[in-house]
Amino acid sequence: MKALLMHADRDFDVAQPLPAHAGIVQQDLELGAVINAMAAGDELIAKVARRALLNSRGNDVAAIRYRQAVVADALAHPEPVRQMYANAVAALEDKRKNYWGFLGHHPSSILYSAIHVLGMFMGRLRALRSIAEAQAGQFQSAGFGNLFAMAQREFNDAYLARVAAQLDALKFRHGALVNACLGPDGESEHYALRRPGEVNANWLQRLLERAPPAYTVRIAERDMIGAKTLSEMRDRGIDRVANTLMHSVDHINSFFEMLRAELAFHVGCVNLHERLTAAGVPTCFPELWPPGNAPGFRARELRDASLVLTLTHAVVANTIDATGRQLVVVTGANQGGKSTFLRSLGLAQLMSQCGMFVAADGFSSAPCSGLFTHYKREEDASMRQGKLDEELARIGDIADVIRPGAWLLCNESFASTNEREGSELARQMVTVMQERSIQVIFVTHLYTFARAAYAQQQDAALFLRAERLADGTRTHQLREGPPRETSYGEDLYREIFGADAERADPAGDESGREPRTASVRRV
Amino acid sequence: MNDAYAGANFRSILWRADAAAATSDDGVAVPDCFHDLNLDQVVDAIAAEWPEENLAPFFHVTLHDIAAVQYRQAVLRDLERPAVQRSVLAFVQHMRSVHARLAGIEKLHYRHEKERALLTAADGYCSAVQNLKQEIESLDPASAGLRGLCAYLVKYTTESVEFMKLASDTHELLSALDAVHYGLLIRSGSVTVRKDAGEADFSVEVEDIFAKFQQDIAQEAPRNARGRIGINSLNHIEAQILDRVALLYPQTFATLDAFCAKHELFADPVIERLAREACFYLAWLRYTEPLRRVPLPFCYPVVDTESKATVCEDGFDLALSVKLAQEHRPVVRNSVTLCGAERIIVVSGPNHGGKTTFARMFGQLHWLAALGLSVPGARARLFLFDRLFTHFEKEEDIATLRGKLQDDLVRIHQILKQATPRSVIVLNEIFASTTLNDAVRLGQRIMARLSQLDALSVCVTFLTELADFNEKTVSAVAMIEPRDPALRTFKVERRPADGLAYALAIANKYRVTRAALLQRIAP
Predict the structure, then answer these.
(1) Which chain A residues touch B120 with a CB distance below 8 Å?
(2) Is B271 a member of any domain?
(3) DSSP 8-class letter at B521
């Protein structure tokens, strides 16, 4: 029994360890905001969403499309999905309260508690089947279709009635009948439970009449050892059925656990979608390119989902066509929306890859073999490592695990050294990544690096600039354009320092910079 | 010697058939040298792992003729073959359980129970013997010991009427008991015993209805097995059930009565003896196994009763290396050769440099070789001594200086009085408790006595004066690491005892050697 609401062919692995860099990616992309919106206070949803987003690297186009269809069904029918989730949650809660586990327990107590829990589980399976019956025609996806068909096929009334009868017989009201043979010590062994049959008060008598002799051993009133021996013999006799029931409890339990986990993801999608819709942010299911053919991506009115969820005012959207561009270099003004863009792109790629919708009017890309981020870090508080050491160590960590077809998002990498060295490090790294077919989106102030890249590979790379209007105000939108030397830190400086800045810097030289940049470009 | 003859004469795999060997361990004391050589640790460890076989006495009695040593070496070589070792070990374990069962019969209360236990023991005995015979025969051992054993087993299993009758009676009776099946109706307060009435297997029915929940479950060992360890007696209920079962199957249980009357004592004394003596070899192989896996070499020494030419290549201290191997620390190996008139190895050098370990190794090698065992080393040629004497400085130091020196002299006097030219003598740090002049004088006296005696000896001493005493002495020095005198190499090498290597190394480290001082102090 499988839920198959995440993958067409296998269970969703809740316990799968996250990749080593998952924590960094989560932090750099501020995934927490998205996860919290999905969870809406439900810890399990948060856990599942986190796994789904950060462990999505193995999903291929077919797998993603399968899940997109399930998510679309959930968005179209939120109530039945939430009901099924609540049913699974309740089933597991029933079991938790009524089941003691097996370790250290006798078969008879295992059997007793398993009979009870199986009775409750059957009720929950019946409830699932009822929802399936009611909704069967409404849902479109293969995932929900299979689940509904399975519930109707496996848990029809006839089956549920047979189970109830069997569970009743297992209470052994008239004694347990077992077969045995002699062990090497003269003890009885190889106990095998026999069917009680239509046992009634005259059972023994009829048995005596039927032929073979029978001898009854009675236990004296206060014979504790005798009583214990009998109950141990009974335990050995019922051990196998106790095991069967225990496995059934386990199995149905893991089915409900799986169903709960997979539905948690879809309930999470419903929750997030409601939040984004309420904020007036359009969403779409992304178009998936087959991997390997086309590097790059195409985004229409792409927004940073995590920013949407944390801000109250409108968030800037970007429309970028980087189709066929293995490298995207983003330069331009500080506070100009570069980091937001990088984050929106990373989030869109992760969400796309796990079958979710994205916060855009349109988004297309190929699934990647892994998504990595390399962001400028604050100084290491412990001062054990220099900044560049730390940065390069992180590049090394990434290099251990990154593979062709991956995405690497760099935010001001190599800013901890001077521009010449930083540019050379960046150039070396980026050329290796390109040769290894790794998509790089590089936000940088390293003008030497950006300029050289622009000069050498205008076709393979896309160059974006954070827009700054003539009066110094920023639109927070990115426009295609060659790298410029300054990042307008000057602007920010002035903005913050206001009039003090003017007085302190009599030789403000912004006017002199622009032409110099231009002349270099012409060379 | 043909095998049939060997079979007729075979008595022991420790002692050749023609050896007038001690057949009783009674009164074999722990040799005096055991503590000094740390062989007590070795034998204690072995004895602890083989508690039932009382192996220690085997390690206390050395062999004095070459053929006896070779007899054991050949058996041990055969047993180093994994297949041979496995079969003999299986036999030993089989016999252990037979012994345990026979010993347990005393403690049983009920007739049928005692009879059943005897049958089990007899069955274990028969298969132990038959398996061993079959396997040893097919493995075609090379040693006289195992070939003799093989011939003996063939004769015993195919010609001994007693054994053949035991085997066939056991087999028939077990088949009859296997056919005993009965039903038990267990209720609170009573259990009814009757013949199997062929009801349906209820466990199977339950498994059938819950089949859909039994997938993906790893097969686990049934907990049906009786939770009893070793042999426990039946309690009164179990015994009463057994009595009722006997009533259901009167014929079978009458045969059991007859079997027990006939075969009360079934074990052959040669087989019994083999079960214990085989453990001497198995224990040795198991004890040395972790060392051989390191890998450290073990070899079969060439033993001689005439020539005292001695070779030890890459030898090591057994007890110490077991400890080092457990801690994954390296084991230092040492080599030494004595030829011509050379008899006495004088070991000098810095403290904690491996001198005592070297002396122990020398003694251990001789003792182990005289037990017919493999010895720790790559190659060895050793003299088969009549007695082995050791005198190590005692750890407890309560005595006054004079008392201690007196103890030393008394002990050495005893040794020299008892020792013959065929003895091996190991003296460690003698006369450390007196003045240098005293020690030198006494030492020279002892050296003269030892030379005169012509016994193989090792003297560990700080008195370098003793190292080149005469043509019989060989000087060996515990080496230090020249670059860092604080590091011990624990290597003992044959070289003149100048006492300077250590001092020079320290001088070098502090650059106060002549060359260094010439450089440092400008002219």
Answers:
(1) 184-185
(2) yes
(3) S
Residue of A152, A150, A146, A147 lying closest to A133 (CA atoms): A152
Q: Which domain, by its residues, includes B336?
A: 299-520
**How many alpha carbons fall within 13 Å on the CB side of residue B510?**
8
The answer to whether residues B323 and B261 belong to one domain is no
| Domain shared by B432 and B497, yes or no | yes
Q: A20 touching B, CB under 8 A? A: no
Among candidates A119, A272, A108, A104, which has minimal Cα distance to A193? A108
Return the CATH number at B396.
3.40.50.300
Does residue B120 form part of some domain?
yes
Q: What is the pLDDT along chain A (523 residues), one digit of tens a residue?
A: 888 999 999 999 888 899 888 999 999 999 999 999 999 999 999 999 999 999 988 789 999 999 999 999 999 999 999 999 999 999 999 888 877 665 567 888 889 889 999 999 999 999 999 999 999 889 999 999 999 999 999 999 999 999 999 999 898 888 889 999 988 888 888 888 988 654 444 555 555 555 567 889 999 888 988 898 898 889 888 988 998 998 899 899 989 999 999 999 999 999 999 999 999 999 999 999 988 766 899 999 999 998 888 887 778 899 999 999 999 999 887 677 888 999 999 999 999 999 999 999 999 999 998 999 988 875 444 433 445 666 777 888 888 888 888 999 999 887 766 666 778 788 888 888 888 888 999 998 888 889 889 988 877 899 998 877 777 677 778 888 888 765 444 444 455 445 544 444 444 343 333 333 333 332 2
CA B408, B411, B415: angle at the middle one, nearest 5? 130
d(C-alpha B202, C-alpha B224), whole Å: 15
> Would an 8 Å CB–CB cutoff place B228 in contact with chain A?
yes
Which one of B293, B311, B329 terminates a domain?
Answer: B293
Does the distance separating the beta carbons of B222 and A217 come in below 8 Å? no
Is the domain of B342 the same as that of B240? no
For chain A, say whether B219 makes contact (Cβ under 8 Å). no
Same domain, yes or no: B488 and B352: yes
Q: Locate A283 and state its tokens.
A: 């969403």
Radius of gyration of chain A (CA): 33
B313 and B175: one domain?
A: no
One domain for residues B403 and B457? yes
State the best of A193, A217, A245, A255 to mutate against chain B, taking most chain B CBs within 10 Å.
A217
| C-beta of residue B248 within 8 angstroms of C-beta of residue A213 | yes
Q: Which of B243, B263, B293 is the last residue of a domain?
A: B293
Bridge partners, residue A365, by sequence:
A288, A297
Say which CATH class A287-487 falls into.
alpha beta
In a shared domain, residues B272 and B338: no
The answer for A 295-354 residues in CB contact with B (under 8 A) is none
Q: Report the C-alpha gap between A320 and A71 in whole angstroms.
A: 26
Angle between helices A31-39 and A43-54 (to 10 degrees): 140
